[in-house]
Design brief:
The protein is an all-alpha fold. The protein is 75% helix and 1% strand. It has a two-stranded antiparallel sheet.
Length: 328
């Protein structure tokens, strides 16, 4: 049995729970876009993580449902906005929302998902009390700020492609690590954990998020398009800053650097993309990125060792390993 199958009860609970926050609301077209995006599915890693964190510290999974739903709506809002900013063609194997409904409606639906995530958090006070609810809300706010700072770094890179490893890691921490860390932290706080345990879980899953994004960047270049759900190599044409790109720019020849730069922020050109991927292979950029992801995995396990043994800890370690080493 895979870890995803072992955690299927959490995912099924989430799938039963989130529609009530989106259905029966107007204007219909506004919520139709949100519902359609959510119905495309996904592994629901962030809500599942929040539920697992709650049970890890002895809480009731039912009590974290509003937090779990808020996290996934927030996550999907970022996907919708990212697709617009990158003018992506596919999301989970289907045309992106702005290509179906137009940019104004899609952008507004993304804003709507942001707003709904905070509205849903208002339910926390009745469940968890004022102090814990404030910690959850504060963590969300810090995550939101970090995420848009990370997106600003991402966008600004496209006009200044000279970066180093520390810069990329900070970008990944803000864009991806913050949301994973917040999912674990808020789940733990909702389950009654003290600050030290919740903070350990935040750091552990912030690192998972960084390693997850490195793996995602690899899959965009070496994965199978049918499984991955996005065009292979479109991170290159979109000018995405990645450790792979940084390593190749640092270790390639001047001619190879020029070829890479010429392929960034351009309409998708399959031949150009293949040429750049060959440069990545020649400079061992894929192996380098895998090594960095593995270093974060070792730190993740080190933090996990501080958590008292339990079935939930075992599941959490297995989930972290799966997220970092996934193939799709």
């Amino acid at each position: 049995m895979t870890i995803i199958e072992e955690l299927s009860e959490y995912r099924e609970l989430f799938e039963r729970s989130y529609p009530r926050y989106l259905t029966g609301r107007t204007p219909e077209i506004h919520y139709k876009i949100m519902i359609e995006l959510m119905e495309r599915g996904g592994k629901r890693l962030r809500p599942v993580l929040s539920m697992l964190s709650t049970e890890l510290v002895g809480g009731r999974v039912e009590d974290v449902i509003p937090v779990a739903v808020a996290l996934e709506l927030f996550h999907n809002s970022t996907l919708l906005h990212d697709d617009i900013e990158d003018d992506s063609m596919l999301r989970r194997g289907k045309p992106t929302m702005h290509r179906i409904y137009g940019m104004p409606l899609a952008l507004n639906a993304g804003d709507g998902l942001y707003g709904l995530s905070y509205e849903i958090l208002l339910e926390c006070r009745a469940i968890h009390g004022l102090e814990r609810s404030w910690k959850i809300f504060s963590s969300f706010a810090r995550m939101h700020v970090a995420l848009v700072e990370g997106q600003a770094m991402d966008i600004s890179f496209r006009s200044q492609p000279d970066i180093d490893e520390a810069w990329v890691i900070e970008l990944l921490r803000k864009k991806t690590g913050a949301l994973f860390g917040t999912s674990a932290y808020c789940g733990a706080i909702a389950g009654g954990a003290d600050e030290s345990i919740a903070s350990d879980l935040f750091k552990m899953w912030e690192n998972v998020g960084i390693a997850f994004q490195i793996r995602d960047d690899l899959l965009n270049l070496i994965g199978e398009e049918e499984k991955y759900g996005k065009k292979i190599g479109d991170d290159i044409s979109e000018g995405k800053p990645t450790l792979i790109l940084m390593h190749a720019m640092k270790n390639g020849s001047n001619a190879e650097r020029e070829r890479i730069i010429e392929s960034l922020n351009r309409p998708y050109n399959e031949k150009q993309i293949r040429d750049v991927i060959k440069i990545f292979e020649k400079t061992n950029a894929f192996e380098y990125a895998k090594d960095v992801a593995d270093s974060f995995l070792r730190e993740i396990f080190s933090i996990a060792d501080r958590i008292p043994p339990s079935r939930e800890r075992e599941l959490m370690v297995k989930l972290a390993k799966y997220v970092v080493e996934r193939e799709v």
